[in-house]
């Protein structure tokens, strides 16, 4: 059994894709054991509770130092004997202690084709705004391992999505999630669990 923790900060549609895959039996021997939110009241927490998954909130804004947040995150994940950590719209940086303790056991979904539009400051709709401003005709999503470089770990899966002339950052975000992120993330988790 692979005990999975999903880290979230917002709406949790990627978490929902994982829950749906799990309920359908598509996560191989993976079990969604824990959802950790860095934001209190995130809608993702409601999704987790509805699916019967334990939730913990570690509010990033309550920690002055990134190291303190990193330490608490490591202990919570260790206490729950987590084998795979999935960043699904987790908008806080995962610190070096967590990365070291869970080496090659943390994955992230990013809403672009890495190495384009990634790294510091590229999150949520900022990514899609940058893609539209650059004028790319194809974008997409990437699932990758997490190391000490933001969005710099080994790529696991990628999927391309067309950019339409009529796109806004919001419409593009929605299509990238629907066509790529919600497909790739459960697929990557299943592959790793297998
Ligand atoms: C998703 O598009 C995810 O790729 C992005 O935030 C959104 C969260 O949506 N993550 C990043 O930008 C990380 N760099 P969700 O809460 O509905 O899953």
Unreliable stretches covering 5 or more consecutive residues: none
Number of separate helices: 6
- Named at the architecture level, the CATH assignment of the domain at 2-108 and 143-157 and 181-193 is 3-Layer(aba) Sandwich
Instruction: State the major sheet.
Output: 7 strands, mixed
Question: Given the C-alpha coordinates, what overall shape results?
Answer: globular
Q: What is the CATH superfamily of the domain at 2-108 and 143-157 and 181-193? A: Formyl transferase, N-terminal domain
Helix content: 25-40%
Fraction of residues in β-strands:
15-25%
Hetero compounds: glycinamide ribonucleotide
The average pLDDT score comes to 97
In CATH, what is the class of the domain at 2-108 and 143-157 and 181-193?
Alpha Beta
What's the order of the H and E elements?
EHEHEHEHEHEEH
This entry's quaternary arrangement is single chain
Distance between the termini: 10 Å
Task: Please write out the topology.
Layout (H helix, E strand, L loop, with lengths): L1 E7 L4 H11 L6 E8 L5 H8 L3 E4 L8 H14 L4 E4 L8 H6 L4 E5 L14 H10 L3 E8 L9 E8 L6 H25 L1
Parallel strand pairs: 1-2, 1-4, 2-3, 4-5
Antiparallel strand pairs: 5-6, 6-7
Helix pairs in contact: 1-6, 5-6
The protein binds glycinamide ribonucleotide (GAR).
Describe this entry's structure for a reader.
The mean pLDDT is 97. The chain is built from 6 helices and 7 strands. α2 (43-50) links the parallel β2 and β3. The protein has a domain at 2-108 and 143-157 and 181-193: Formyl transferase, N-terminal domain (Rossmann fold, 3-Layer(aba) Sandwich). It is of the alpha/beta class. It starts with a strand and ends with a helix. The radius of gyration is 16 Å and the shape is globular. The protein has a 7-stranded mixed β-sheet, with helices on one face. It has helices spanning 13-23, 43-50, 66-79, 96-101, 125-134, 169-193; strands at residues 2-8, 30-37, 54-57, 84-87, 106-110, 138-145, 155-162. The protein binds glycinamide ribonucleotide (GAR).
């Amino acid at each position: 059994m692979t005990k999975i923790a999903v880290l979230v900060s917002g709406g949790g549609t990627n978490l929902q894709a994982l829950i749906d895959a799990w309920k359908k039996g598509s996560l191989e021997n993976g079990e969604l054991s824990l959802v950790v939110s860095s934001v209190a009241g995130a809608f993702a927490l409601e999704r987790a509770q509805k699916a019967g998954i334990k939730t913990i909130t570690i509010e990033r804004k309550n920690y002055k130092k990134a190291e303190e947040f990193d330490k608490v995150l490591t202990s919570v994940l260790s206490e729950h004997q987590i084998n795979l950590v999935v960043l699904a719209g987790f908008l806080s940086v995962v610190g070096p202690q967590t990365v070291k303790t869970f080496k090659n056991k943390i994955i992230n979904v990013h809403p672009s084709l890495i190495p384009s539009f990634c790294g510091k400051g590229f999150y949520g709709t900022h990514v899609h705004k940058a893609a539209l401003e650059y004028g790319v005709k194809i974008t997409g999503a990437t699932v990758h391992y997490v190391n000490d470089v933001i969005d710099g770990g080994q790529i696991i899966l990628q999927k391309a999505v067309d950019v339409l002339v009529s796109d806004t950052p919001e419409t593009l975000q929605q299509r990238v999630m629907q066509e790529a992120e919600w497909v790739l993330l459960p697929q990557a988790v299943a592959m790793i669990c297998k």
